[in-house]
């Protein structure tokens, strides 16, 4: 912003009027706001435009500053070729991380809110959206009248109510040779996600890796899974 002040007024020691300052300023619109004219529609219009632009500037600056203090980062992945690797790597991702048929009354009492089946008052939310048969079973399990809770262990609950590959795997072929559940092992168990996602607070990710070794680039893997009920359907990602 370039300010052009009359040298004579400065030398005389007289303060520069706001109108003179605005007329000599290169800040766009300032000369229209502080002018020698009387109050008019033009001055009001320029004042509103100036204040609006200034408000947008403050808003954008504030938003960028807040974003900066979130410390955003970008993750870059580099692919590296290898001649020796464990193959294939299969990830089973189930949106229903626990089998509803394996959830007991004690599980529901301790982890009902965590599983998004109950609210903080041990009540069933959104009953109108639930399946009638499933709702009936859930209502029976959620009846805690005269119920004495027992100790609860999340790991035991996960092993008992989680999806087991021995029950899901129907057939498996790797490079023309049969494979089975014994050729897979759990390589990751738990993933804790954002607390903002209440219905997905705790996701069970079972990641299996075959014990076979990849000896060439033409390795082929086929597999058939058994869906575990309408409410316990597994999603398969093949590599």
Structure description:
It comes from Naja naja. The chain crosses the membrane at residues 44-61. One of its GO terms (cellular component) is presynapse. With 239 residues, the chain is α+β, with helices and mostly antiparallel strands. 31% of the residues lie in helices and 15% in strands. β2 (169-174) and β3 form a beta hairpin. The radius of gyration is 34 Å and the shape is elongated. Residues 188-221 and 229-239 have low confidence and may be disordered.
Characteristics of this structure?
single chain; 239 residues; alpha+beta; four-stranded antiparallel β-sheet; three-stranded antiparallel β-sheet; 15% strand; elongated; ligand-gated sodium channel activity; transmembrane helix; transport; sodium transport; sodium channel
Fold blueprint:
Elements: H1 7-11, H2 18-24, H3 30-33, H4 41-68, E1 89-93, H5 105-111, H6 132-141, H7 154-161, H8 165-168, E2 169-174, E3 177-178, E4 186-192, E5 202-209, E6 221-225, E7 235-237
Antiparallel strand pairs: 1-5, 1-7, 2-3, 2-6, 4-5
Assign the structural class, choosing from mainly alpha, mainly beta, alpha/beta, alpha+beta, or little secondary structure. Answer: alpha+beta
Number of helical regions: 8
The total count of strands amounts to 7
Helical residue percent? 25-40%
* Helix-strand topology string: HHHHEHHHHEEEEEE
Report the C-alpha radius of gyration, rounded.
34 Å
Shape, principal axes of CA atoms: elongated
Low-confidence stretches: 188-221, 229-239
Alpha-carbon distance between the two ends: 60 Å
**What share of residues are in beta strands?**
15-25%
Placed side by side, the strands forming the largest sheet appear as: 4-5-1-7
- The chain-level mean pLDDT equals 69
For the largest beta-sheet, the strand count, sense and barrel status come to:
4 strands, antiparallel
GO biological process, one term: behavioral fear response
Keywords: Disulfide bond, Ion channel, Ion transport, Membrane, Sodium, Sodium channel, Sodium transport, Transmembrane, Transmembrane helix, Transport
GO cellular component, one term: Golgi apparatus
Membrane topology: Multi-pass membrane protein
């Amino acid at each position: 912003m370039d300010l052009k002040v009359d040298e004579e007024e400065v030398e005389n020691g007289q303060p520069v009027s706001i109108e003179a300052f605005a007329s000599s300023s290169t800040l766009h619109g300032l000369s229209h706001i502080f002018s020698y004219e009387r109050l008019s529609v033009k001055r009001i219009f320029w004042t509103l435009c100036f204040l609006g632009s200034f408000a947008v500037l403050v808003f954008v600056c504030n938003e960028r500053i807040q974003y900066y203090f979130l410390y955003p980062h970008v993750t870059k992945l580099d692919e590296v070729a290898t001649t020796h690797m464990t193959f294939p790597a299969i990830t089973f991702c189930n949106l229903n991380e626990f089998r509803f048929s394996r959830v007991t009354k004690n599980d529901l009492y301790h982890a009902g809110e965590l599983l998004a089946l109950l609210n903080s008052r041990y009540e069933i939310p959104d009953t109108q959206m639930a399946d009638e048969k499933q709702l009936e079973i859930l209502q029976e399990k959620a009846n805690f009248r005269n119920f004495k809770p027992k100790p609860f262990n999340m790991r035991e609950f996960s092993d008992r109510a989680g999806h087991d590959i021995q029950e899901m795997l129907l057939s498996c072929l790797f490079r023309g040779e049969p494979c089975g559940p014994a050729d897979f092992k759990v390589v990751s168990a738990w993933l804790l996600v954002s607390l903002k996602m209440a219905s997905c607070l705790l996701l069970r990710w079972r990641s299996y890796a075959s014990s076979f070794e990849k000896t060439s680039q033409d390795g082929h893997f086929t597999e058939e899974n058994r869906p575990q009920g309408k409410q316990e359907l597994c999603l398969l990602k093949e590599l």
